[in-house]
Amino acid sequence: YCMEAVNKAQAETGEIKGTYLNVTAATMEDMYERADFAKELGSNIVMIDLVIGYTAIQSMAKWARRNDMILH
Fold first, then answer.
1. The predicted structure's pLDDT at residue 6
2. One pLDDT digit (tens) per residue for the chain, 72 residues
3. For residue 68, what pLDDT is reported?
4. Helix and strand numbers, DSSP H then E, in the chain
5. 43 is in which domain, residue-wise?
6. What sign results for the dihedral spanned by CA atoms 19, 35, 25, 71?
7. Residue 26 has what pLDDT?
8. How many CB atoms lie within 10 A of CB 43?
């Protein structure tokens, strides 16, 4: 639903738009799955909570770089 709104706004304005899809989950596997789904939907930005911890943040940063995504 949110990506439909982003795509509509981009079409109407000619500007690049984005939405921060939160992929925070209990396990890394779940976060990777959510991030992959966000990418499939057409999102170029994913967001995580800092409470997941430093190691998990670094793992998600590596995933984002490998998948040409922005991590917030």
1. 85
2. 678 888 899 899 999 887 889 999 999 999 999 999 999 988 989 999 999 999 999 999 999 999 999 999
3. 97
4. 3, 3
5. 2-71
6. negative
7. 96
8. 21
Residue appearing with tokens 């509509």: 8
Matching residue, tokens 């690049």: 16
Q: Which two tokens stand for residue 67?
A: 């998948």
Q: What is the pLDDT of residue 1?
A: 67
SS3 46: strand
Q: Which of 22, 65, 15 is nearest to 46 (CA)?
A: 22
How many Cβ atoms sit within 10 Å of the Cβ of residue 36?
Answer: 15
Between CA 72 and CA 23 the distance in angstroms is 10
Residue 13 CA to residue 22 CA, distance in Å, equals 25
CA of residue 71 relative to chain centroid, distance:
6
